[in-house]
Amino acid sequence: MSTPLMEARGLQLRFGRVAALDDVAIDIHPGEVVAIVGESGSGKTTLLRVLSGLMRPDAGAVTYRGEDVLAMPEAARRRLMRTEWGFVHQNPRDGLRLGVTAGGNIGERLMAVGARHYGNIRAEATEWLKRVEIDPARMDDIPGKFSGGMQQRLQIARVLVTRPKLVFMDEPTGGLDVSVQARLLDLIRALVADLGLAVLIVTHDIAAARLLAHRILVMRQGQVVEEGLTDRVLDDPQHAYTQLLVSSVLAA
Ligand SMILES: Nc1ncnc2c1ncn2[C@@H]1O[C@H](COP(=O)(O)OP(=O)(O)OP(=O)(O)O)[C@@H](O)[C@H]1O
């Protein structure tokens, strides 16, 4: 197998008496989609935040292409976040600039990686609006005029326009109507495959994990209780907690 893009070992993080991460290890390989599932409060978002350098663990190691993420100067981590990494927030408002037009939200990311030619930036923004199924005629609208699903698609365009290698997604379809969720999942799946992205996605939704992920990590009380290829984990869960999680979805 390829060398992992990102590796983490022995991650520990406590909030008072709560162990949000309790000796967590994870590898993410280039082009691989890994889903983190588990009940509310199991540590999924905390893991995403620690891996992306937004939060420091009490102990453990995180490397990206062999480089120590935790020892990186803040400026270097921010540069990675603008270039090789992307973060898709559950609430698009956390990932968009609300006072800036749709085209500006996409163009701004391109400018952050050195694009300067106005015509090219606008052409690329047009292309990306089409890719995420937003009418380019809405280019000069601010995100506040968009529906929740459109805002989320715009956030995805803003993140993917710079062709990151690793994208962190925190419940990207949470808070949307079921029909909108299904369409968005299909769109994410197509873009991820097309761009060959590595994705670490936190989701409550087992069906979303099945659709998108090559591999699943099941978290409970800050620990990874089960990990494996998606079909194996969902069709033949070994840990009692995973069995409960899968059967509760089947029963729903
Ligand atoms: N900033 C914080 N301060 C105090 N406790 C926190 C903080 N962030 C997370 N926690 C606690 O750490 C544990 C893990 O939280 P986390 O948000 O990672 O879980 P989660 O699995 O993402 O949950 P959800 O699915 O509800 O988003 C929870 O008990 C939570 O209350």
TrEMBL record:
InterPro entries xref list: AAA+_ATPase, ABC_transporter-like_ATP-bd, ABC_transporter-like_CS, P-loop_NTPase, PhnK
Cited NCBIfam families: CP_lyasePhnK (TIGR02323)
Biological processes annotated in GO: organic phosphonate catabolic process
Keyword rRNA-binding recorded: no
SMART domains: AAA (SM00382)
Protein keywords: ATP-binding, Lyase, Nucleotide-binding
GO molecular function (one): lyase activity
Keyword NADP: no
Domain ABC transporter residues, every copy: 6-246
Name under which the protein is recorded: Phosphonate C-P lyase system protein PhnK
Domain of life: Bacteria
